[in-house]
Amino acid sequence: MALAGCTTVGPQFAPPPAPSVAGYAMAGETPSPGVRLDPEQRVAGPWWRAFGSEALDQVVRQALADSPGVAEAVATLERYDASEQAAAADLGLQAEATSDAQRQKFNSKAFGISGASSTSPFSGFRSRTFNLFSLGANVHYDLDVFGRGRRGAEQASALRERAARQADAAYLTLSGQVVLEAVRVAAARAQMRLLNQILDDDRRLLDLARQAETLGGIPRTTRTLVEIQLAEDEATMPALQRQYDAARHRLALLVGKSPAEWSPPDFDLADFKVPPEIPVTLPSRLVRQRPDILTAEANLHAAVAAVGVATAEQYPDVRLSARGALSALTPGDVISTDSTGFTLFSGITAPLFDGGARKARTRVAEAEARAALARYRQTVLEAFTQVSDALAALQTDNRRLAALQRAVAASQSEADDILAAARLGGATAQRVIETRRELVRVRRALAEAEAQRLSDIVTLFAASAADWRVPQAS
Question: What single-letter DSSP state applies at residue 463?
């Protein structure tokens, strides 16, 4: 046993090695402009500050401070922190104080003293009833020869680490959700503003159509078509209003408020600056800083430690104990030195036969450890895929934005030309309104594309585990 005490049974945990891949793009994919692979991945402050919006910064900070979801994650961390401390304390010396008062009856027959004469040396041990008072202490120490307690403490430490990483994930996820909803608010406002311009043009065109019909310049069917177009455009507004309201309500939820007691700022797409460069950490670093990967690693550590616990249960357990007490028949004599007594003892508990239950529990723990390793690998692959998707999305966003910017420029040029022609009598007012309406429609598409690019940048920041920590005020 002394030799066995020099080791701890069960497997030793080692973090899985970092992946060997150097990037995220699939073969044949071009790198996204404005993205830089960086082993350090640093931005100026928390990642959302890269958008340059003070209002956004205030809302995110409020959410991180007041969100019930974050509060739950912090409370869970405190719980596992206490569990870790308790598991570590169990490895040390355990002592407890005792006190009791008893009413007993001494049975002399149980000791073969029945019928003793007055001259018998045992005559004082006749059956009688008496009180017994005692004060004492018990001390226990588990030698933990095969490391069951140490493995349990290791498991508790791993579970505490998991809770810490889950808290980090809650902060990172919450910050990303807040920024996404803020972008949705801004996008809906931009769409509604541009749609109102289209509706204004529809109404002006309808007035022209009614005047032309009255003068006999166009048939009634032409005016009807204009009315149908106006009705269709008006039917688009409720859906945009619903998106706008839902995003604002969702923001209130994220900051821990009800919609009736808090309203978000009126975000505008112009409030958000596109970062000139987005640093993205390398895969070898991502597995060491992305919270969900670190959570999966902590789960794996806890599962490996559980194998050690189950293995140690197959070996003997050795405990040392001591008891000391002051006992007397009257309370006043309890504190007398003549009332002292003590017991020193040790014990060994060793499994003899349990029908294979302990070995079966070890196999269960080993299978769970293998499952935890598979979940870790799956988490890593999903994280890499999310980063790859975000990078690919930015690439398509940039191409779409470039095409829509050309379309807006062309529509603007056409609208200007038609307006100039109309001033010289070479184009009708209806044609002016139609070209203006097309210009606004293309601008709506451009605003939608700009919002999508912002959302994809947010997704990339979150997927690459950008820093969410808010510096503490000094």
Answer: H
The length of the chain is 474
Rounded to whole angstroms, how far apart are CA atoms 107 and 103?
13
Q: Could you tell me the strand order of the sheet in which 317-328 lies?
A: 94-106, 128-142, 317-328, 340-349
Q: Which long-range contacts (CB under 8 A, 24 or more apart) does 363-372 make?
A: 364/310, 365/303, 365/306, 365/307, 365/309, 365/310, 366/307, 368/303, 368/306, 369/11, 369/300, 369/303, 369/304, 369/306, 369/307, 371/303, 372/296, 372/299, 372/300, 372/302, 372/303, 372/304
Q: Which residue has the tokens 């007397």?
A: 328
If you compute the radius of gyration of the chain from its CA atoms, what whole number of angstroms results? Answer: 38
Query: The pTM is what?
Result: 0.84
Tokens of 237: 């507004």
Strands 128-142 and 317-328: antiparallel
Dump pLDDT digits (tens) for 121-137.
Answer: 555 566 678 788 888 88
Q: What are the tens digits of pLDDT across the range 375-390?
A: 999 999 999 999 999 9
Task: Report the alpha-carbon distance of residue 466 to residue 92 in Å, rounded.
Answer: 41
